Amino acid sequence: MTQPRIASGVAPRIAIEGLTKYFGNHLVLDRVNLRVAPHEVVCLIGASGSGKSTLLRCINRLIEPDYGKVLLDGVPVEDPSFGKTGLQRRVGIVFQSYNLFPHRNVLGNITLAPIRVHGLTRAEAEARAHEVLAMLGMERFARAYPEQLSGGQQQRVALARALAGGPDVLLLDEVTAALDPELVGEVMAAIKAQKDRGMTMVIVTHEMGFARGLADRVCFLDGGRIVEEAPPEALFTAPEHPRTQAFLSRLIEGGRL
Amino acid sequence: MIPEQPTTPPPPPKRRGFDWRTALVPGLIGGGSIVVVFGVLGWLVATNDNWPRIRAQFFNPDHMLAALPRVAWGFLTNMQVWLIAMACIGVWALVLAVVRSLRGAWFAPFRLMVMLYIDIFRGLPALLLVILFGFGIPALRIPGLPNSGLFWGGVAMVLCYSAYVCEIYRSGIDSVHEGQRAAARALGLSEWQIMVYAILPQALRNVLPSLMNIIVALQKDVALLSVIGVRDAVREAQIYTANTFNYSSLVVAAGLFLLATIPMARLADWVTARDRARRLQQAG
């Protein structure tokens, strides 16, 4: 087992301890430990069903684990001090299938939570939304509906929606998996910009180029456990664990690495 | 080696001009066959020995004209009940469906109550409910409660139809993708806000065609109130028949119902087609 590579003395932004989750009798997460430092980008890779997405969704409580805990800046995520919505405001998530609200336009998607949850006025929320959209190069689509946008544009709107509350942690769940190859670049560039602005990110991905170019650390999951974690260069060029080696060689055979 | 391409692509193919044969022949044949079929049927009826009696009993112009004002007046009652009941059903069924769809252990008793409600009101004949409410409750003479048969009959219709409409709403709520709920929850919306801002707008749009069908069905089923003495179109027509032993008044009532329901049915078709086009577009 490799050692977590966090400089000693830095308090982790996210600390995951002994996280275990069953779906029925099926063990999805098996005593997972993971620490993510502030401003760090961690990629989770692994085969389908290895527990990556479940791990991600435990961080913002879309899924409640059976055992173990998730700490955000040392505070358990289920702590009452977060209130009903404090956690959601600090942790944004973007999904594989965008999950934009089809009946609301871009602005309506982005301002829903700021207005209804965070109590901003419409004017404040829209000003903030325009700011975020401008950052993502999407401001001219503010009045468009999701169905009028390409996949890459929709995903950037989903990112804008996640950023509107001003989170300091971003969870990305296979955000490029549903995109046509030529649209992956624009979404990756937007995420790269978030990394450069110091966002702490946990990224589930099948896109190894993504992991290589963005991650400070890559974790390989297999059977609900993190079997290997290392900086991307080390993990991709000299994997230690036989499972990681097998997974990577399958990717190479498939032409995806 | 790719053969050299000319510098401009060939022009788009010419649209085929309007062709009378392909446009008109199917319509003419279709229309012609309808004329033939109904012509033969009409001829069979009209040449029947009993036709003069049938015409006198059912299609007597004098009786029809004489009955029209009162039947039409009654029909206004039908349409009033229809509109008011429609609004009440729309709201009450939505309340039931939302309660039935709320998640969490705290709502379990409420979910159970709604389930029971639906089982009861969907399992009973509407006619029985109309008679029970329309005659039964006014007979109790409870002070403070309205004792008009029209009111209680209307209540019975609302209670009964709401059970069906609730199930339609619920299928719409269930049809919204789980990812929408996850996205809304991740944004910090409460269960209630998720329902109002994320799920319901999509659910209602999805079930609009089914709702239209129920609205058409309700439009004619409000005539059930005639059995408890509400002077609607059917009741007025019956009264006329009872006085004259002529059934033309009922045909007048039938005509009025068709005048109202057929446009609604076409509207329902149109909504369904539009909805289908929208879904196809989204899928593509």
Q: Oligomeric form of this entry?
A: heterodimer
Fraction of residues in helix of chain A: 25-40%
Task: Work out the radius of gyration of chain B.
Answer: 27 Å
Number of domains of chain B: 1
- Gap between N and C termini of chain A: 24 Å
- Note poorly predicted spans of chain A: 1-5
CATH fold field value of chain B: MetI-like fold
CATH class division of chain B? Mainly Alpha
Class from helix and strand fractions of chain B: mainly alpha
Low-confidence stretches of chain B: none
The coarse overall form of chain A would be globular
CATH homologous superfamily identity of chain B: MetI-like
Lay out the secondary structure.
The complex is a heterodimer of chains A (257) and B (284).
Chain A: E1 14-23, E2 26-36, E3 41-45, H1 52-59, E4 67-72, E5 75-76, H2 86-90, E6 91-94, H3 106-116, H4 122-135, H5 151-163, E7 169-173, H6 181-196, E8 200-204, H7 208-214, E9 217-222, E10 225-230, H8 232-237, H9 242-253
Parallel strand pairs in A: 3-8, 3-9, 6-7, 7-8
Antiparallel strand pairs in A: 1-2, 1-4, 4-5, 9-10
Chain B: H1 20-46, H2 51-58, H3 61-101, H4 108-123, H5 126-140, H6 149-175, H7 178-186, H8 191-221, H9 233-244, H10 248-283
Helix pairs in contact in B: 3-4, 3-6, 3-8, 3-9, 3-10, 4-6, 5-6, 6-8, 7-8, 8-10, 9-10
